[in-house]
Design brief:
Alpha-D-Glucose-1,6-Bisphosphate, Chain A, domain 3; six-stranded antiparallel β-sheet; 14 helices; 22 strands; A-D-PHexomutase_C; phosphoprotein
Length: 454
């Protein structure tokens, strides 16, 4: 009987509880399927600090080598370090991580050569089908000539590449608190920040995939409380928080206040446009109005996309965009193979702050022009009916426009909101933005009343 892997093969990656939902024998089959689908004769593999990661990545390597592919293991790394290796070496890659998920989870993020993403529509469905088939019938026969498995370290080259993309030579000394959340930022930050005029205050740099201090998910405000307190206590210039696999970076200003990822997107966009005048910037449809405004003001072309890294990366490739940003603190760079790297965004923030004398709160004020609700989730049994009720209530109002690029977006001269369903849960996600707090609260409450009573 063919196994059903639908619960662990998601839209963009493999992710599930180990060993309940997947284990090393299954990882070996994924490795063999990855080689067969990509047609690769060589691949690169990295892993995070979770207890199950070394064993799972080694099993994947065995499966790949048995199909004839030469395997380069880069060991402990952040996800963007794996993308760097894929880009620099020109090899398909696999990263073993479950990002910010709890300790019992693990997963695989896969890409083709040059860090091109693999998702359900670009090979992941075929990989799943092969792994399901082989889990029932047995592993495929080994190749006539198995591949080799070798180890190399790419951390120093990764750090050098990032620092080659941002001029940090003339910045003033800065005191920066970094909360690595016991994730891979504790491995990469010391090397990337080495040689810079930074007074680094490390928090939770010990690699520990059981996350003893807090979840490595800075998108949840509860997980940056320690960082906020430490920034204030140290009198630091800023704070940085990385998620578990250190591909996302969140910023806290000198007052301990979170800086909106939209403001960071706008700031980095302006800096990238200074290097590449007239370039295209990608932003998803729930980033702030500030982002396209700043892009236009600095001579660039903003392009709006659906939420999700596959849409961002596809639009970057289609348009030749120089940079892309999401509300979730994923930042994508043409100079980084269109892949996302929170570390490069962090270096841009350090360069911008260190290149002038104002505090970070003053610097980012120009990029943070509106009041947002943040993402509000509501459990809804009939997502379509609730969305239709909201649409009916707003669509006929004067001055209102409606679009359905991704869920329902309703816009007016002084506010907008987006209501979109979760792909995996019975949830509707609401984001509201307005020119002032009173308007934002009024629209937010009106939409939520409709969603939660319809």
């Amino acid at each position: 009987m063919t196994a059903d892997l639908s619960q662990i093969v998601k839209a963009y990656d493999v992710r599930g509880v180990v060993p309940d939902q997947w284990d090393e024998p299954l990882a070996e089959l994924f490795g063999a399927a990855f080689v067969q689908v990509t047609g690769a004769d060589a691949i690169v593999i990295g892993h995070d600090m979770r207890p199950s990661s070394p064993g799972l990545s080694a099993a994947f390597a065995r499966g790949a080598a048995n199909r004839g592919a030469d395997v380069t293991l880069i060991g402990l790394c952040s996800t963007d370090q794996l993308y760097f290796a894929s880009g620099r070496l020109g090899l398909p890659g696999a990263m073993f991580t479950a990002s910010h998920n709890p300790a019992q989870y693990n997963g695989i993020k896969m890409c083709r050569a040059g860090a091109a993403p693999i998702g359900q529509d670009t090979g992941l469905t075929e990989i799943r089908t092969l792994a399901e088939t082989w889990s029932a019938s047995g592993a495929p026969a080994p190749a006539a000539t198995p591949g080799t498995i070798t180890e190399t370290d790419t951390l120093v080259d990764y750090a050098a590449h990032l620092k080659s993309l941002v001029d940090l030579t003339a910045i003033r000394p800065l005191k920066v608190v970094v909360d690595a959340g016991n994730g891979m930022g504790g491995h990469t930050v010391p090397t990337v920040f080495a040689g810079l005029p930074l007074d680094l205050v490390p928090m939770y740099f010990e690699l520990d995939g059981t996350f003893p201090n807090h979840e490595a998910n800075p998108l949840d405000p509860a997980n940056i409380v320690d960082l906020q307190e430490r920034v204030r206590a140290e009198g630091a210039d800023l704070g940085l928080a990385f998620d578990g696999d250190a591909d996302r970076c969140f910023v806290v200003d000198e007052r301990g206040e979170p800086v909106s990822p939209s403001a960071i997107t706008a700031l980095v966009a302006a800096r990238e446009l200074a290097k590449h005048p007239g370039g295209t910037i990608i932003h998803n449809l729930i980033t702030s109005w500030s982002v396209p405004e700043v892009v236009r003001e600095t001579g660039g072309t903003p392009v709006r996309t659906r939420v999700g890294h596959s849409f961002i990366k596809a639009e970057m490739a289609r348009t030749g965009a120089i940079f892309g940003g999401e509300h979730s603190a994923h930042y994508y760079f043409r100079d980084f193979w269109n892949a996302d790297t929170g570390m490069l965004a962090a270096l841009h923030v350090l360069a911008a702050l260190g290149g002038q004398d104002r505090p970070l709160s003053s610097l980012v004020a120009a990029y943070d022009r509106y009041t947002g609700s943040g993402e509000i989730n509501s459990t809804v049994e009939d997502q379509a009916a609730s969305t239709a009720a909201v649409r009916a209530a707003f669509a006929s109002r004067e001055g209102v426009t409606v679009d359905e690029l991704d869920g329902l977006t309703v816009s007016a001269p002084t506010w907008w909101f987006n209501l979109r369903p979760s792909n995996t849960e019975p949830l509707l996600r609401l984001n509201v933005e307005a020119k002032d707090e009173v308007t934002m609260s009024k629209i937010r409450d009106e939409v939520l009343a409709l969603v939660r009573t319809s």
